[in-house]
Amino acid sequence: MTTVAVDIRAGRSGRYPAGPSFSSRLFSGRMFRQNAIESMSESARLYGDLVHYTIFGRHIYQLNHPELVDDLLVKDANKHHRGIVMQRAKIVLGEGLLTSEEPLHMRQRRLAQPAFLRQRIAAYGKVIGKNAVEISQGWRSGSVHDVHEDMLELALRIVGKCLFDLDVQSQQEVKKVSAAVDAFMGFLPLAILPFSEQIQRLPLPAMKRIRKGQADLDAMIYEMIAERRRVPGDRGDLLSMLLEAVDTEGSTGRMSDQQVHDECLTIMLAGHETTANALSFALWLMAKHPEMQTRVHDEAREVLGDRAATADDYARLPYATQLFSETLRLYPPVWVIARTCVQPYEIAGYAIPKGAILVASQFVIQRDPRFYSDPLSFDPERFAKDCAKSRPRFAFFPFAAGSRQCIGEGLAWMEGVLSLATIVRDWRLTASQAGREIALNPAISLRPKFGVPLFVERRPNVA
């Protein structure tokens, strides 16, 4: 593994690491002109691996090196709570895995973990393969189609069936969940404002949309819980396990309806949105790189033939896996991780005060030329066998790490690889706007801003 020294520079006062001043950001117009990704990328380029600045009087420390990410997510994890956005997201998500703190978080993770064990995920393979075939059947060959909308529906169908044994088929259900996700994405600007709690109580259009989406999903989830309480039993999904799990550390021994609801809501929103975004970016990249698309197609034809994919096929699709990995490097759906310091400590001799926010961006670090040559180019060969050994562990961390590592990572990998292989086996994709980059929307997750319009053609060897 190649070692790259951490580049830490002192700020003008010497009290804080180097970073942009409030006045420079304000009077240059960067504060209003740049989005968060552009701002963080520029800060890393100009000020090194530990950057300090303030937002509304709060100290922000930006970590731009794999060693510092290791400290943040693993070694010093007990010194932090969730970032301010996730803390304030409890108004929407409740006390689910994304928002809860220790010791509750570890107890919740232990109860939910069995649904994501390898043998359980293997049973989800057929669901992925079946829905990946069905989702594109409505495409009209020879037309331009926004594949992002379909990937959202595909991911929702998969998470609904695998985790809740729910057949999400009606467009009304899809639109309800999609509207709730869109509203939740609009929560980010409100969450970082001063007096956010007070603002959230105002009858603002954004909060009305969030409340409407929340009410729709609450009704859907509580109805599922009530039905399962009436007819208990293990259906092989997350919901069954949560309802049957014995919480030896809880007061009742079983999870309450509220606890089960919070976990279901979190996984439904997070699990379908992030995977759909990754699939959309991957399809767009393949459309831009037809030679790579051909390799995935040929591999899929050889492995799958004309049948639907299953879990056994996942390990037999190495190039599709490489391509999905490279997509996650360039366009990580979880593009930034934030933590709040709850116990003062030091990083490289600099005091991190209680209440400070520490952020590490997958988008920034995974595009760093110190760890990836020609980092903006799309090259799945970076993830060929043994190539990763030359890079630091946290030069690639799309699913985070430590006790907060994404519980659904295994399912996300299988869903991404099997879906891509199935779609490209059956369809040829061409970028409808050749040479044009895709616009990004760095909200709570990284999304394509204006959809992903692609020219789709049914391949001649498909019935």
Helix count from the secondary structure assignment: 19
Cα separation of the termini:
47 Å
Strand order of the largest sheet: 1-2-8-5-3
List how many beta strands DSSP finds.
12
Beta-strand content bin: 5-15%
Average pLDDT across residues? 86
Sheet with most strands: 5 strands, mixed
Which percent range fits the helix content? Answer: 40-55%
Shape: globular
Low-confidence stretches: none
Structural class: alpha+beta
Radius of gyration: 22 Å
Short note summarizing the structure:
With 463 residues, this protein is α+β, with helices and mostly antiparallel strands.
Protein architecture, described:
- The protein has 463 residues and is α+β, with helices and mostly antiparallel strands.
- Helix content is 49%, strand content 11%.
- It contains 19 helices and 12 strands.
- It has helices at 22-28, 30-33, 36-47, 66-75, 84-88, 90-93, 104-112, 118-135, 147-164, 171-185, 187-191, 196-200, 205-230, 238-244, 257-288, 290-304, 318-330, 362-365, 409-426; strands spanning 50-55, 58-63, 80-82, 143-146, 337-341, 345-347, 350-352, 357-360, 427-431, 440-442, 446-448, 453-458.
- The strands form 4 sheets. A 5-stranded mixed β-sheet has the order 1-2-8-5-3. It has a 3-stranded antiparallel β-sheet with strand order 4-12-9. A two-stranded antiparallel sheet has the order 6-7.
- The longest helix has 32 residues, at 257-288.
- The chain is globular.
- The N and C termini lie far apart (47 Å).
